[in-house]
Records
---
Amino acid sequence: MVDVITVDCAVLGDQRVGKSALITAFCNPKETEHMTSYHMTTDPVIRNKQVRVPDSHTYEMFFFDVPGLPLYRDLVKRYIAECQSALLVFDVTRPDGLDTIEAWSETLTEATLQQSLPIVLVANHSFEADDDPDTIHRAARASEIADRNGWKLARCNAATRRDVDVPFMLLADSLNMSLDG
Ligand SMILES: Nc1nc2c(ncn2[C@@H]2O[C@H](COP(=O)(O)OP(=O)(O)OP(=O)(O)O)[C@@H](O)[C@H]2O)c(=O)[nH]1
Ligand SMILES: [Mg+2]
């Protein structure tokens, strides 16, 4: 019998970093909404997809796509209260891209009352400005932040769909590690 484990995952990050585009590209690849133009998330949406780890568990993942707009922060906290994992998404090309990541991590902790959930830090907009020294520096800082917090780091680009499955595979790896010790 296939061992399917259900996991709720909060997808957090500032407005317009590409949370909805990333989730859509992974869960509903034929959909174009969020891929070509911006539709601000106001009502939280849940999308799901199975992720299978070879020779291990299969995860039925439910992704909580929530608004990045600060106005919605209390709603977001209530909505993600039962989540057991998270993707923290930022725009690696944006000068302030990393400034709020630790605040998002605190929001997750306050909402779930859990200190060390499996988390993947997602550098979206990767491969767009790879020659830019500031972007290179930001990517290095992201790697330090991930190491310091025990998170995995994924690089992807939701607009071009390059490596959009990587954050989800790394999340499944982290879940495996937390389950299998
Ligand atoms: N250039 C580029 N654009 C992207 C990328 N990912 C998403 N976008 C675009 O950026 C805009 C915002 O993306 P969304 O996915 O709606 O952003 P969001 O994080 O869900 O924003 P909120 O719902 O307001 O919190 C859309 O027009 C996307 O098509 C990316 O990797 N590179
Ligand atoms: Mg959105």
---
Amino acid sequence: MRALRAGGGPDGGILSPETEGCARPEREFAFLPLGPRATLPPVSDTGKPVKAPPEDPPETKSGKSAGPPGEKPVDAKGGKAAETMTESAPGAAASAPSAGTADARANGAAAGERTNGEQIEILDAQGPSTLDLELDLTSQQKIAVDRSLPVERRVEAFEDIVESDVGDTSLSRARNLEREIGLRQIYLKFEGDNPTGTQKDRIAFIQARDALRRGYDTITVATCGNYGAAVALAASLSGLRCVVYVPETYHTRRQQEIEQLGAAIVRVPTDYEGAVALSQERAAKDEFYDANPGGANTSLQLRAYGEIAYEIYDELRDAPAAVAVPVSNGTTLAGIYRGFLSLYRRGRTSRFPRMIAGSSARKNPIVNAWEKALERCEDLDPKRIHETSINEPLINWRSLDGDHALEAVRRTLGWAGGASDKEMTRLSRMIREKQGHNVLPASTAGFAVLLEHHARASLPGDRYVVVLTGRKS
Ligand SMILES: Cc1ncc(COP(=O)(O)O)c(C=O)c1O
């Protein structure tokens, strides 16, 4: 194991907290080691005991073979209740959403006929199993939304859809980016592969399933756009009604998409945090399922994001040196950390990745707490938080899962930082040009913070995973 000292050094010393511009105590840094488990701090979130993970690691949906990591690319946010809010009527429910609806081939016949009429078996990997799966998914969609059917059947059908269409996103080595940046072994975890283009699908679908199973009729959430689109799609595929709260001033380009999916949009004259409060109040009053972060579903959400860690492990067969994540409420980052925690406890990985949190500069409590060495996240002054079309997904004056994320960053000896709109836009362009991924600029915040560190204190050769989301509009 290579020990790396704060402040950097000739051996590629990295990760110096003082170079982050804040008064944090100097620490010895080392990637959490291959060696004794004793070096891993006992883990709990916000002081609560962490539930022991199941005995065996969850099978990833891919069922991909665990090949050795190679050089080649691998596939693999309390305002007051607003009297003036308007609720637009739900549009016509979306016509059969696209999940799993590729055209079925009519004749994927398993059997062929000899010229003499004798039937023979044809072993054709593109044949009947593909056809059956597609047909199966189409019928599963019909079952999942059919309110006349027993809930158990609908849940089962919905699970098939989730399994086929959510998660299992690609992890690919970004060699062209590496050459441009001068840092080797950058892997892009492209959450744009999810049905609405972001990791939000992971928590939207798992909560829709939970809502369905528990007999809810309607699901509600507040959003800057991405999460609303994800919940709207999950609701439309599970036969749930959906009510999405959106701050009036937000630029979100996803409103139309949300409405087309049959969800009701409530534009409210508040900020994001105010919209969350209104959505939560509505949930309590009308017995809607509350899918907002920071509530009763936190552990479900963290578990869903933990899948990202399992998928990374599936490809790399160990934890990378670091995972860079865009943060707003911090749920995504905290969930990925939980996944790696579970993998480490099971002895699957030899170390922990450093968790790197990136957000809009000076507009996020997690970054603020890190930079000021605060013990916990503190609310920022709402008057100083201004959204732009670029930073919208990331800004908060309150991070609803901020303490979970802050703890993850600290325990893994990671770090946090801010990125400007300009830098995020530049990076998204570079990723498109060099790697062909159309990514949401805001999702490059973690990457920006990783690169900023590399520019100041050269990072050592190791594997770095960057979580990115797609841009659908
Ligand atoms: C594209 C994108 N990336 C990252 C985030 C931040 O996720 P979290 O709130 O889990 O920190 C969001 C939040 O909406 C988002 O839309």
